[in-house]
Design brief:
There is one protein chain. With 381 residues, this protein is mainly α. The chain has one domain. The chain has 14 helices and three strands. It has helices at 13-18, 22-42, 50-71, 74-98, 118-136, 149-163, 168-184, 189-209, 213-223, 234-244, 257-260, 272-305, 309-333, 351-369, and strands at 100-102, 105-111, 114-116. The chain is globular. The protein starts with 12 loop residues before the first helix and ends in a 12-residue tail after the last helix. The relative contact order is 0.17. It is found in: Cell inner membrane; Membrane. Belongs to the SEDS family. MrdB/RodA subfamily. The chain crosses the membrane at residues 20-42, 54-72, 78-99, 144-162, 168-184, 191-210, 280-304, 316-340, 346-367. It is a multi-pass membrane protein. Its EC number is 2.4.99.28.
Length: 381
C-alpha cells in the first residue's frame, strides 16, 4: 500500500495555520534567538554581518516552513520521496565527477550561479525514501533478510559517496538516520546485533583504509594515542578550558575569555556550544539542551499520533537527525567523540544545517497537521 487517504483534517488555510504545532515553532524560534545572541557576542557587539544574517535567514526559512506545512500534506511528501532521494544521489555522483573543491574537500556542485551541497539534500531524502519504503512494505516482511537489502543499499550508497568527499560527520548522520528508521520500521534485534558487529569491523577497516590523515589524527587524539595540543588536539583543549572555567553561571554575555580573545576556534559554528557554556555557565548550557530535548519530545509525539506509517517514520527520522546533530556536536566539544565538524542546528552560523532542519520540520508540521491521513501500519505501532 503506497497511498494515503484522508478521513478528517483542517480544510481552510486559516484552520491549518491555527492548528499548526506552535510548541515546535516556539522552540525553533527560541533556539534561533539564542543563535542571534551568540553571534552578536562573536561579532563583538555589532548587529551587522553574522547576527543580522542569521536572524534574517531563519525568518525566511521559518516562513517557508510554515507555508510548506500548510499547503503540502503528507501525500505530497510521500509522492516526492523516491524522486527526491534519486535526485540527491545523482547530485552526489555529480560531485564525484565535477564537484568544486574548497578547503581540501570536494562537497559542492556548481550549477550556474548556484552552489549546492547535495549531502544536505540527502539528509532529507534518506528519511523520506526509507519512510516510504516501509510504508509500502508488508509488516510481516520487515524482519526478513531479503527485504533488508533494499534499505541497506539505499543507506550505503550515499554514505560511501559522502565519506569519499570527505565528510565523516555528514556520512555518520545519514547512516544514523537510516538505521533509526529501519529500527522504527520493525528491524529485528538479532539483525541489529549482527549489524553492530559488522559496524565495529567496518570502523576498524575505515580507520586504516578509508579515513584521511587529518581524520586519523583526530581519532588518535580522542583515543589518547597521541598528544597534539597545538595541532589536532587544539580545538578540544581550548573548548575544555572554556567550559571548565565557566562555573554555574558563566562569565557573562560577551565576557568569555577563550572566545573573545580568539583562543577558541570555530566559535561561531562547530564550537558555539562551548561559547554558550563559557558565557552563560552550566545553567545556560542545560537550558539549551533542555530546549533541544523538548523539541525532540514534541517531534516524537507527532510521530506517535500520526495514523500513517509513513508519517510516523518521517517524523521519527527527523527526530533522529536532530538527535544526531545535537549529540555529536555537544559530545565533540567536551572530548567524548572525535572532532568531525558538525554544527549545532539552528544556533550555529551557516545555512546548510539550518535549511536541512527547517525542511525536516516542515515535514513534521505537515505530518502533525494531517495526522488523520492513514495507510499501511508496521508492527511497532
Amino acid at each position: 500500500m503506497t497511498t494515503l487517504s484522508m478521513t478528517a483534517g483542517p480544510n481552510t488555510v486559516f484552520d491549518r495555520f491555527a492548528k499548526l504545532n506552535w510548541g515546535i515553532i516556539t522552540i525553533l524560534i527560541a533556539l534561533a534567538f539564542v543563535g542571534v545572541l551568540m553571534h552578536f557576542s562573536v561579532s563583538s557587539g555589532a548587529w551587522t554581518d553574522m547576527p543580522l544574517t542569521h536572524g534574517i535567514r531563519f525568518a525566511v526559512l521559518l516562513a517557508m516552513m510554515v507555508l510548506a506545512a500548510i499547503f503540502l500534506d503528507t501525500r505530497v511528501w510521500l509522492a516526492i520521496a523516491y524522486p527526491l532521494y534519486a535526485v540527491a544521489l545523482i547530485l552526489l555522483v555529480g560531485v564525484e565527477v565535477a564537484g568544486a573543491t574548497r578547503m581540501g574537500a570536494t562537497r559542492w556542485l556548481d550549477i550556474g550561479p548556484l552552489s549546492l551541497q547535495p549531502s544536505e539534500l540527502m539528509k532529507v531524502g534518506i528519511v523520506l525514501a526509507l519512510a516510504r519504503y516501509y510504508h509500502s512494505l508488508d509488516p510481516r516482511k520487515t524482519g526478513t533478510v531479503l527485504w533488508i537489502v533494499p534499505p541497506f543499499l539505499m543507506i550505503v550508497a550515499p554514505v560511501a559517496l559522502v565519506m569519499h568527499q570527505p565528510d565523516l560527520g555528514t556520512s555518520l548522520m545519514i547512516l544514523f538516520a537510516g538505521v533509526c528508521i529501519m529500527f522504527l520500521g520493525g528491524l529485528l534485534w538479532r539483525i541489529i546485533a549482527a549489524g553492530a558487529i559488522v559496524a565495529i569491523g567496518g570502523a576498524i577497516f575505515a580507520y586504516f583504509g578509508v579515513l584521511h590523515e587529518y581524520q586519523r589524527q583526530r581519532v588518535d587524539v580522542f583515543l589518547g594515542i597521541t598528544q597534539d595540543p597545538l595541532g589536532a588536539g587544539y580545538h578540544v583543549l581550548q573548548s575544555k578550558i572554556a567550559i571548565g572555567s565557566a562555573g554555574l553561571f558563566g562569565r557573562g554575555w560577551m565576557q568569555g575569555t577563550q572566545s573573545q580573545l580568539d583562543f577558541l576556534p570555530e566559535k561561531h559554528t562547530d564550537f558555539i556550544f562551548t561559547m554558550i557554556v563559557e558565557e552563560f555557565g552550566l545553567l545556560g548550557g542545560a537550558l539549551v539542551l533542555g530546549l533541544f530535548g523538548a523539541l525532540m519530545g514534541l517531534t516524537m509525539q507527532v510521530a506517535y499520533k500520526a495514523r500513517s506509517l509513513f508519517g510516523k517514520l518521517a517524523a521519527g527520522g527527523v527526530a533522529a537527525t536532530l538527535a544526531c546533530y545535537v549529540f555529536i556536536n555537544t559530545a565533540m566539544v567536551i572530548g567524548l567523540v572525535p572532532v568531525v565538524g558538525i554544527p549545532l542546528p539552528i544556533i550555529s552560523f551557516g545555512g546548510t544545517a539550518m535549511v536541512t532542519l527547517m525542511a525536516g520540520y516542515a515535514i513534521v508540521l505537515s505530518v502533525d497537521l494531517h495526522r488523520d491521513q492513514h495507510g499501511a501500519r508496521g508492527w511497532l505501532w
